[in-house]
Structure formats: structure tokens, C-alpha cells
Design goal:
Strand content: 25-35%
Helix content: 25-40%
Structural class: alpha+beta
Distance between the termini: 135 Å
Shape: elongated
Strand order of the largest sheet: 1-2-6
Radius of gyration: 38 Å
Number of strands: 15
Order of helices and strands: HHHEEEEEEEEEEEEEEE
């Protein structure tokens, strides 16, 4: 009947209302209270994830910038430096392409909310660690781009200056000391120099050209040049030294030889013997060894110089190997 239907409808409404009240009281309120913890964790994750996304975008942009720098034409840097920059690019690309871990969604079960919130925090920490690492990589990438661009834009070849000239007119022997300077902030390699000797009338009486050793960044090396009568057509009076190659910047490391126990022995009658002990840091082939002796007075003024060639030594000197060098001088000015 109509009355029965009304009563049934009222009862049904009451049941629904009670059920809804129970749902809100027993589930929704406790769930929302617990979900606050999840939401807090999720907010922290979102902040870290967004930061990582921004860093990765910067990485991609700066990868392209550095790539353009090292692939430009006729840049004065060698393959070793280009390879070093490419390694940094590859590392940066790997970082930027690594997927960002996803945080798990909030579960519907009240019992699972807290464990999932803790999982979100763990993922957040992982993303934070990725951001720290990628940010360091980004800094390295930017610094490399700045360094290389500056090296290329400000590149200058080596500079030379003749600091001492000695001529034995009786025997027609020439010796001189040239300082070869590197004005760049990186090691300079593949520098060739040429020297031309002139007599008192300005006529050419001798010349030579050759490759020089690597020159330290913002540093210098000495070159001792000269010739004897067999390679001189007259008595030298002046020497001109010029750089004949631009050279390349590099980051290669040359073997190091430590020189110690330098001795200057007065043999009498104006003759002296200069000797020293040398120690290598790596294995060195004797054929690649050349030496130079520069003698200075008490005031630091150069008064003599000569070159030295490896003789009476084995073909190879092992790492930390020791050998001695010596040179004989005659008619040196007062020391």
C-alpha cells in the first residue's frame, strides 16, 4: 500500500543516513586524518621532483652549449681536452636522461596510508640525492664551458725572449738562452721555434728550428740553442728567436724529473764542473731525454749555458729511477 511504501522509504533513508554517518565517522574522518601525513610527504616529494626536473632541463641546455664550443672549427685545444669535455657531457646526459622515481599513490586502506607515506619519503630522499648529484654535474658542466670558452677566446701562442748570449769567437761557438713563455691558463704544446744568428754586419750565419716541450699554464721553459763552427758560416753577434707554430692547449701530463744535489766544482784555471742528480716519476725512454745547464752568478744573472744529451744510460729508466748529469765549463766569468 501507499503507507507501506512511505514507511519503507523512510526506513531506507534512515539506513542510508546511518550508513553515511558511520562511513564518515568510522572511515572518512580517520582516513583524512591519516592522509595528512601522506599529503605532507607528497608535497615534499613534489618539491624535490620539480627541482630535479628543472636541473635536468638546465643540464640539457648546457650540454648543447658545451657541445657547440668543443665542436667549433679551428679551436686551439687538442683531442685530449676535447675528450675530457666530452666525458663531462656524457656524464651530464646520463644524469638528465635518468627517469625520476615516481611516488606511490595514496591507498584507500587506512592501514596502508602510513606505510605508503613512509615510502613516499624514501622516494623523496632518493630524488633529493639525484638532485644533489645532478646539480654538482651541472656546476661541472657550466665551469667546463666557461673555462673552454675563455681559453679559446683568449688564446695566444708562446712568447720568446733571449735572456743570455755567449759567443766563443776563437772557436766560433754560439750558445744562448731563450725563455719561452705560455700566457694561457692551460698547458701549451706543439710549439716550434726558429732561431737565426747574424754577424756584426747583419748577415745570416746560422739557423735552426725545432719542436719544444710542453709549456706549463702561465709558465715558461728555457731553450738553450746554439751551434759550433761546423754549422756556422761566420761569427754570430746577435740571435733572433721566433715562434713558428700556434700550438695547441692540452691537459696531458708530461713525465716529471726532479733535480737535486746540484754541485758546482771549481777545477782551477777557470774551469768548472756542474753536476746534479735526477729522479724520474714514471718510466722514461732515454732517447726522449734532453737536458739543459744554466749557470748563474750570486745575483741570479746567467753567465753560462749548454745543452746535454743522454749518454751512457740504459734505453729505459724505470719509474723512480735515478741518474746523474754533468757538464764541463771553461772560462766562466767570476761566480
Amino acid at each position: 500500500s501507499k503507507k507501506a511504501k512511505i514507511i519503507a522509504g523512510v526506513i531506507g533513508g534512515v539506513i542510508i543516513a546511518v550508513a553515511l554517518t558511520l562511513f564518515v565517522t568510522l572511515y572518512l574522518v580517520p582516513y583524512n586524518e591519516v592522509k595528512v601525513e601522506y599529503n605532507t610527504a607528497r608535497e615534499q616529494y613534489d618539491i624535490e621532483a620539480t627541482a630535479l626536473e628543472n636541473i635536468n632541463k638546465e643540464l640539457s641546455d648546457n650540454i648543447e652549449t658545451l657541445q657547440k664550443v668543443i665542436t667549433a672549427k679551428d679551436i686551439p685545444i687538442d683531442e685530449l681536452m676535447i675528450s675530457s669535455a666530452q666525458d663531462i657531457i656524457n656524464e651530464a646526459r646520463k644524469c638528465s636522461e635518468k627517469p625520476i622515481p615516481k611516488a606511490p599513490r595514496a591507498p584507500l586502506s587506512i592501514e596502508k596510508v602510513k606505510p605508503v607515506a613512509l615510502e613516499v619519503l624514501k622516494v623523496k630522499d632518493t630524488v633529493s640525492e639525484m638532485s644533489d648529484y645532478n646539480n654538482k654535474t651541472l656546476t661541472k658542466l657550466k665551469d667546463t664551458e666557461t673555462e673552454y670558452r675563455s681559453l679559446i677566446e683568449n688564446f695566444k701562442t708562446a712568447e720568446t725572449n733571449v735572456e743570455w748570449l755567449g759567443v766563443d769567437k776563437e772557436s766560433t761557438v754560439l750558445r744562448f738562452v731563450t725563455k719561452i713563455s705560455n700566457p694561457n691558463n692551460a698547458i701549451l704544446r706543439d710549439i716550434n721555434i726558429e732561431w737565426i744568428a747574424y754577424d756584426a754586419d747583419g748577415a745570416v750565419v746560422g739557423n735552426y728550428s725545432g719542436l719544444q716541450p710542453d709549456i706549463p699554464a702561465n709558465g715558461y721553459v728555457y731553450y738553450i740553442g746554439g751551434a759550433g763552427s761546423a754549422h756556422l758560416s761566420g761569427t754570430p753577434a746577435t740571435v733572433e728567436v721566433k715562434v713558428t707554430s700556434e700550438g695547441l692547449l692540452t691537459n696531458r701530463v708530461a713525465p716529471k724529473i726532479d733535480v737535486s744535489n746540484i754541485q758546482l766544482k771549481n777545477n782551477g784555471f777557470g774551469s768548472y764542473t756542474v753536476s746534479a742528480e735526477c729522479t724520474t716519476d714514471t718510466e722514461v725512454k732515454t732517447s726522449q731525454l734532453d737536458g739543459e745547464f744554466i749557470v748563474k752568478d750570486a745575483n741570479g744573472k746567467i753567465i753560462g749555458a749548454d745543452f746535454w744529451y743522454a749518454e751512457n744510460l740504459p734505453d729505459t729508466i724505470k719509474a723512480n729511477g735515478k741518474f746523474k748529469v754533468s757538464e764541463y765549463y771553461f772560462d766562466l766569468p767570476a761566480l
